[in-house]
Amino acid sequence: MSIHIHKEIESLKKMILEMGAKVEQNVHDAVVAVDRLDVSEAKRLIEQEEEIINQMEIDIEEECLKTLALHQPVAIDLRIVVAILKINNELERINDFSVNMAERIIDLHRLEAGKFPFDLIGLADIAQGMLSKALDSLIEMDPNKAREVIAQDDEVDDRHAAVYEVVKEEMKRSLDRIDVIIQLPSLSRYLERVGDLACNIAEDVIYLVEGVIVRHQEE
What we know:
Blueprint: H1 3-36, H2 39-71, H3 75-110, H4 120-140, H5 143-151, H6 153-173, H7 178-181, H8 184-210
């Protein structure tokens, strides 16, 4: 590759890794805030972090488009830019789910939610682990590690599906808390979507390294 496109691509890699680290931290902070029903932390995530990540997404997209327009990359260079564009969008969506969790905290705190009737932290640990490993696979350009992320998707889906049964039983036992309990599956859903998007990032890494599109092909 020419020295100019080399510099552009290295800059893009640095930008997407910085965004990934920031989004990963926001997911962690949102989960901790949910567990503690920490309204002040929830407001910080809503009022500050969403704007920061949205601006990072715009900056990366503009740089990708500029690189495509000015350098017209081909082969591996083109795959890198396309993968970064896709990962950029997926990271922004993951951050949206962090904000969604933060917004739910405010409602749950107002309704005096109490303890969760399902293992929220266990589910969060798996989803966060998938995101962390997906980002590691990007840093290391490791398609095998990316495939490990994809292999965990069913576990997150199964845990999320089980939440509905737990919540139905909890509603029968706690009629006075239905307004709270009915909101709990959304927290599980947000974490399940974090896992899904981590899988998408892992698929993007496989495409980047191997040039193979695995979406819709993995068992």
